[in-house]
Amino acid sequence: MELVATCLFGLEKLVGEQIDALGYKRLSTIDGRVCFEGDALAVARCNINFRYAERLFIKLGEFKATTFTELFDGVYALPWESFIGARDAFPVSGHSVKSRLFSIPDCQKIVKKAIVKRLGDKYGIKWFEETGVCYSVEFFILNDLAWLMIDTSGVALHKRGYRLKAGGAPLRETLAAALAAMSRPRDNVLFCDPFCGSGTIPIEAAMLMKNIAPGLKRDFVSKGFPLVDKRLWDMARDEAKSLIKADCDFRASASDIDPDCVELARQNALRAGVSEVVSLSCRDALTLRTEGKRGSIITNPPYGERLGTINEAEELYKKMGRHFATLDSWQIYVITSCEDFQRLYGRRADKVRKLYNGMIKCNFYQYFKKFDK
Question: Could you count the other beta carbons within 10 Å of the beta carbon of residue 147?
Fold first, then answer.
């Protein structure tokens, strides 16, 4: 069957590479979505292991829909009875982008009506009690092409379960994992976040280096699907546990000027199972020293949008540029929504990557300095 992994814009490459690593065949990629082939076991394995994807869907089909009649007929033609039973629930939600069918409520009604008609014809009933397994149906219409899917994740995959509370401007866990991966963490190079907040970036880096599957400690809505029985979930979890690296030389240093954030990060690291490799301290980022170690800074400083003011953020970037220039051969990676960051920082980045922190458009500024092997 065809599966669809959705993600934040800019993370498609990482999602695709993880799909490859899990042994599945990619079919296509569009902004925010990667399609691939997988079986019932893949539903369990991908939900448990995905680091960068937001959700995993089963794709029922796609078709052109420029009118409500085409939408109804296309939905009706799909094999809904292969998943949804006579007593099961099937709420409908969705999105429409650059398409003639732009009214979401109207599209929801048509999709729901078509599924009811299809299932009613197959099961010989007219009324659905919807008290059984819940199959959340999602439609996505882009350029008049409609995709119909069933959600297998439930709660979004960025919610790993270790972060019960977050700081004032939390970074989504999937994005934090991507930032960590793009910084190329290594066992012999200190991973440092001097604006750690609730600790998401160093925690995700530690989970990556210890090979801890992000979804190992949480549940998914498809756990109740007959298609993905308990045996498959047990197989997927046992596999993920067996791949955790018990001995790991990776070390992360996380700090923040706010003691409450440091304590929050400490609790999160403990729940994530990485407290032994993430050291935490309360300090000003502008007092950071290399202490003779090799290291990389990967950080999400205040933007001036949700914490502080824009003027305060800009002044901070100037000070960061001056101080971080003293950190010998350390590599620097900074994500911010400030378009003028490079001028304020005082140096052009070696590479800039466009990303989204939720709905906030950001740039990931990368300053490289080669380490000796």
Answer: 22
